[in-house]
Amino acid sequence: MKISVTFRNGEGENWQKGYAEEKMQKLKKYLDAPAEAHMIVSMEKFRNVVEINLSSNGWNINAKEEAKDMRIALDRCVDKIEKQFKKQKEKIREHKPKSIRKGQEKSTIPEEEDTVTSKITEMRKVILKPMSFDEAVMELEENKDRFMIYRDSSSENVSLIYRRDDGNYTLIETN
Hints:
Structural class: alpha/beta
Radius of gyration: 32 Å
Shape: rod-shaped
CATH architecture of the largest domain: 2-Layer Sandwich
CATH topology of the largest domain: Double Stranded RNA Binding Domain
Largest sheet: 4 strands, mixed
Number of helices: 5
Order of helices and strands: EHEEEHHHEHEEE
């Protein structure tokens, strides 16, 4: 990270520059690409104003703070930039591709239009075999299917067994 520190209304001391650069290194963990940071420190009677302009990979992040002590103003300014980085990273993480967004827009269409446009792509007729739960599990494991519909031999009710992602099974029984 390339850091430039400018002092207005006075000359900065070495410890101030060192402190500023040390605090700016804290932001390095949020950057993937090379960055440039321009820090402007202005000192007036009882006010210290720190302004940081950071640009990296098309991002421009700015923060400005005022305090009685230069260190406090700098710390607050770096915290502001850190929050902005976190917010930007969260936006990128939650960003959904256009194809998914279009799918969500489609669901906002009223149900009447949705049923007209939907088509049945495949239709299967199932013969319900009478079997027990254990037999259904064994057959489901043999076929490598995700679910199976069968007639429970003890209760004569239609049941559905479903293989979950964690390898366990879910049983749904009808009356």
